[in-house]
Amino acid sequence: MWMICTKEWRQFFSSLSGYIAMIVFLLLCGLMLFVFPDTSLLDFGYASLNGFFEIAPWILLFLVPTVTMRSLSDEYKGGTFELLKTMPLKPSQIVWGKFFGALLIVALTLVPTVIYAFSLQVLSAVGGLDAGSTIGSYIGLLMLGAVFTAVGICTSSFTNNTIVAFVSGAFVCFLLFTGFEAVSKLPVFAAGADYFIEMLGIKFHYNSISKGVIDIRDILYFAGVILIFLLITQRNVARR
């Protein structure tokens, strides 16, 4: 499994596209948080990274499918999947290796954003950041990235076209993140079902963790969604 993980890591950084994706993510976050007046953290009047944790999921919607779109579709297209089948590897080892390799790349992309927290802490005149909320939000962001990674690898396992894998991955991530919340706001569900429908969406659990309270139900939800998509991926790989 770790051999596949290392291969995924090397493949991503073997071309400029990997570096460009990471740079674009950090550049967009930096511009929106410190340059653009409507979203600048410096104009809030108090130390808070809430703006970053509201913006970051939308950027991850496009970053993560960029990371995962080649995971299996390139293997199919280039014929290297045939070589994987000749190795003493189970489909589960291939899938989990791909998952952890892509997730490490996503986590590495998030690491430099810790600078934002240190910057606001230094610039804050009184109080500083809420450590519990900030740590919880980073955990939520990492869990969100893990779900998007599982979705991206799953959609990549259905096609040998990387563009199709990217578009379908971004679309499914978008639906999971906002779809249930949008459906819950329909008048037909106003009698009380709206809350339970909203609970099915990723955004509800991401916002819950971002409050600084690590609830086991939120962790189990993220783990369950990840497992479902990786099992679907494993089935596709086994059928190939």
3D structure, described in words:
With 240 residues, the chain is mainly alpha-helical. It has one domain (2-239). The protein is built from twelve helices and no strands. The chain has helices at 2-13, 16-34, 50-68, 73-78, 80-86, 91-110, 114-123, 131-156, 162-184, 193-199, 202-210, 216-239. The longest helix has 26 residues, at 131-156. The two termini are 18 Å apart. One of its GO terms (cellular component) is plasma membrane. The chain crosses the membrane at residues 12-35, 55-73, 94-115, 135-155, 162-180, 219-238.
Q: Low-confidence stretches at least 5 residues in length (pLDDT < 50)?
A: none
| Radius of gyration using CA atoms only | 19 Å
Helix content: over 70%
Secondary structure class reads mainly alpha
Summed up, the helix count is: 12
Biggest β-sheet strands, sense, barrel: none
Spell out the helices and strands N to C. HHHHHHHHHHHH
Our count of domains comes out at 1
Portion of residues in beta strands equals: under 5%
| Number of extended strands | 0
What is the overall silhouette? globular
Gap between N and C termini: 18 Å
Mean pLDDT across residues: 81
InterPro entries: ABC-2_transporter_component (IPR051449), ABC2_TM (IPR013525)
Transmembrane segments: 12-35, 55-73, 94-115, 135-155, 162-180, 219-238
Subcellular location: Cell membrane
Domain ABC-2 type transporter transmembrane: 52-180
